Structures are given as structure tokens and as C-alpha cells.
Amino acid sequence: MSRDTDLPPGNLLLELDFAAEVGRLKIVRSSVKSIALAVGFEEDAAMDIVLAVDEAVTNIIRHGYGEEHRGDILLRALQHDDGLAIELHDKAPTADPEKVKPRALEDIKPGKLGTHLIRTIMDRTELLPGPDGTGNLLKLFKKLEKPR
Amino acid sequence: MSTQDLTEVEGKLLLKLAGDIDLAHCAPIRKQLLGAVAQGKDLLIDLDEVTYIDSSGVASLIEAMQVANKNGTALRLFAASTQVMRVFELARLDQVFPMHADLDAALAATPAAVEG
What we know:
The complex is a heterodimer. Chain A is α+β, with helices and mostly antiparallel strands. Chain A has 3 helices and 5 strands. The relative contact order of chain A is 0.21. Chain B has 4 helices and 5 strands; from the N terminus they run ββαβαβαβα.
């Protein structure tokens, strides 16, 4: 069991259920930024979290659902004593964690940068099968360096 | 919303990008970037009015850079905000893309005749 899964439930700050469409990205970014600032992250750190979540949602839209499927994404933001957890639950076909690994950065080419950005920014990331047996659950956690 | 505008200055192409460059908006920008580098001239890209960029936008710039390298032309970025710069740093691409403070600096770094 990973450390992420061992986290206590946390205080639910936001639940956002939205269509997996590119037109929703701006709303997601705006919501996540507000939450990150409210939890106590500085502006720069909040924007890093926004980028990580944007990349994760983009991956779900582009590679999870792709062009063949349609569906929703449930975003949940949870406050923990030591940071902020973001959960993204989709109903897309189950992803193979081996296929969502970041590429080597020395290999300068378009694509797969998103996964690298997510892992660089967030302290913990975990991709699990959906809790209800459908889709995928991506758990992200960012530690709050300066306690409120 | 994102927009782009292509002009010419001192024999080099100047592309001004603006707005959020994410998956929702990168397709027309990618098309214009690739169209611009295909002209075989040095390309200077103004990022001053870019409010947000993610890996979708960065990927388009990488593609354009690869074409420019193949053609032996320069591709330079300038006037990036701290936040846009941060994305390039996180992607470890700040050493790959020549970044300049403003248009004058980008022009000064781009000689009139580029050696192949």
C-alpha cells in the first residue's frame, strides 16, 4: 500500500463534476488556484499545482477518453494537515500505469511532457483503478512547505 | 482564448502569441507556428501576452524548433512572463529554447545572415 493511500480522509474542500472537454480546462484551473491559495500555498506554488492538475485533466481528456469515448471527470480537493490532495476520478477505459510513465527529458520531442510535469510538481502521485470498479482514480498530493 | 499574429521585422518573422495556450487552443497556434517556420526565415516569438501555457503549447513550440533546426534557421522566444518561464524550467527546456527579455534582445541575438 502506498503512502498516499495511507493518508487520512482529509477535509473535503471542493467537489467538481465536469464533462471531459477541453473547454472546461480554464474553469478547472481557476477552481484549483482558488483552493490552493485558500489552503495557504504561495502564488507560485499554487500555479505549479494548477499546472499539474491541468496536465492530469488534459491527459484524461486526450488519452483516457480520447476521441472514442465521452464522459465526466470528478475532481475532489481535500485538505490535509500537511498539504493538499487532489483526486481525479474518470470513467475512461482503465489505464495501464506503465503507459503513463514520463519520457526521458534528454529526448527533446513533443509529447509525454505532461506526466513529467505532474511528477515534478507534486510530492506524490498514484494511479489506481476507480473505487467503484470503473475508470481510473488519480491521486495527487502536494505538501505545504510553510504551515499556516 | 488565444490569438496569434504574424508580421515581419528586419527580415525576420515575428509571431505574437496571446492568451491561454492549452489543449483547447493549441491546434491553430501549432498550425501557424509550423506554417511560419516552413517559410525558412528566422522566427521570433513574442510571448508577452501569453497568460498561460501547458505541455500542449510547449509541444507545439518543440515541433517548430525541430523544423527550424532542420532548416538551419533561428527560433527565439522573448518577453515570457515568470509563470510561462516556470513551465519551461519545469520541463527543463529553458536551456533548449533561447529566451530573451524583449524584441531588441532577440533581434540582437539573431544575426542578419544565419550560417547553415
